[in-house]
Design a protein that fits this description.
Layout: H1 2-39, H2 46-59, H3 66-88, H4 92-95, E1 105-109, H5 115-124, E2 129-133, H6 136-144, E3 150-157, E4 161-162, H7 164-170, E5 176-184, E6 187-191, E7 202-205, H8 207-212, H9 214-219, E8 223-226, H10 230-239, E9 245-250, H11 251-256, E10 260-263, E11 273-280, E12 291-297, H12 304-310, E13 316-324, E14 332-339, H13 348-353, E15 355-363
Parallel strand pairs: 1-2, 1-3, 7-8, 7-9
Antiparallel strand pairs: 3-4, 3-11, 5-11, 6-9, 6-10, 12-14, 12-15, 13-14
């Protein structure tokens, strides 16, 4: 076992150097914060963070470690921002009751008439300019490059569960949840004017909508086709020369794209509802609310999750979801939604019992 001891001693020596360098980096980060404070510069700098990650990946000889480097430096930069925030945020008490702002640009995924569009309209009415993006990542990218102030993303459906793609990318783009809305989803089968259900052979929609209407699809033995958005599906049908295709979309999409609803309310579960979140960048995060969403990982040992959850016993945990930790096989990130009264010291014990702790947002339920 002498060989093993020698290797462990080597790792301990490397770790010692890493700790010294991290401490040195954080001291430099505080100095950066002082400069930002003097010049009234925002904490979050998307361009700079992208450059940091890209430069670190370029330094790698083994590019298979790229995802690991992204995770490590996202965590390092997140900690740096927290240090800078403590230094800069003198107006914390004045901003404690900051709420959602209107008159801003809001990005949503998909075409006009999709569920994201409907959620954005319900939240912001006509008080904000709405812009559409092709993908969820494009929505977050538009926030990062300051094209949009807010983004609207689906996070959870009452019948099909979490939208895992959204969970996985929120932290990558360092966006914070600032609000939520529950949107009732009623789907219809729609086709071009004059079409009959008996002639429909194929249905097209977003994968989530297809899942939410799976009973109806199976009953009619329809072939499934996938689209990037339920409104995109309606648009495709409106332009198609194929009389055997119909879309599964919401009722407003039928009006917008001139389609005829052949069958209403085809979702599996009546009362089908999707929870949409409003996200913004780090500097626009709210500081107060009765709901919090957090992400963390755990030491790989017996009882670590049970022990950590005990430290949250004073809160109502409304959702617990796990997602794979890509850089560590068979380990996971945990996402928790909880409600209660939060303050700066609320989660100190919990934070000390977990790893990679991140507050994804504090907002009103």
């Amino acid at each position: 076992m002498e060989k093993l001891k020698k290797l462990r001693d080597e790792i301990d020596d490397i770790d010692k150097q890493i700790v010294e360098l991290i401490e040195k980096r954080m001291k430099a980060s505080v100095k950066v914060g002082e400069v930002k404070k003097e010049n009234n510069i925002p904490i979050f700098d998307a361009k700079r963070e992208n450059e940091v990650i890209e430069k670190k990946i370029e330094l790698l000889k083994n590019k298979e470690l790229s995802n690991l480097i992204i995770t490590i430096f996202n965590d390092i930069m997140s900690t740096s921002k927290l240090l800078q925030k403590d230094l800069i945020d003198e107006n914390y008490k004045n901003d404690i009751n900051k709420k959602i702002e209107f008159g801003k640009i809001v990005a949503y995924q998909g075409r006009e008439g999709g569920n994201g569009y409907e959620a954005a309209k319900k939240i912001f009415e006509d008080k904000c300019e709405l812009i559409n993006k092709k993908s969820f990542e494009d929505v977050l990218e538009s926030i990062r490059n300051e094209e949009a102030y807010y983004g609207i993303l689906p996070l959870e459906n009452s019948s099909t569960g979490m939208v895992n793609e959204v969970l996985d990318i929120l932290v990558i783009y360092n966006c914070k949840i600032v609000g939520e809305i529950y949107l009732p989803i009623e789907y219809g089968l729609m086709a071009k004017s004059g079409a009959k259900i008996k002639n429909i052979k194929k249905v097209i929609s977003h994968p989530q909508a297809l899942k939410q209407c799976s009973d109806f699809i199976k009953k009619n033995n329809f072939e499934e086709l996938k689209a990037s958005n339920t409104a995109e599906a309606a648009y495709i049908v409106s332009k198609s020369e194929d009389d055997s295709i119909a879309s599964i979309s919401n009722k407003n999409a039928a009006k917008i794209y001139g389609l005829e609803i052949l069958k209403e309310n085809i979702e599996n579960i009546k009362g089908n509802t999707t929870r949409f979140i409003i996200v913004s960048n780090y500097d626009n995060a709210l500081k107060n609310g009765n709901k919090m969403t957090i992400r963390f990982s755990l030491p790989h040992k017996n009882g670590s999750l049970a022990g950590a959850l005990l430290k949250l016993k004073n809160f109502n945990l409304t959702s617990i979801v796990s997602r794979p930790y890509r850089e560590r096989k068979w380990q996971y990130y945990f996402y928790i939604d909880m409600t209660g009264n939060f303050n700066e010291k609320t989660l100190d014990d919990f934070k000390n019992s977990v790893e990679n702790f991140t507050i994804l947002g504090i907002y009103d339920e």
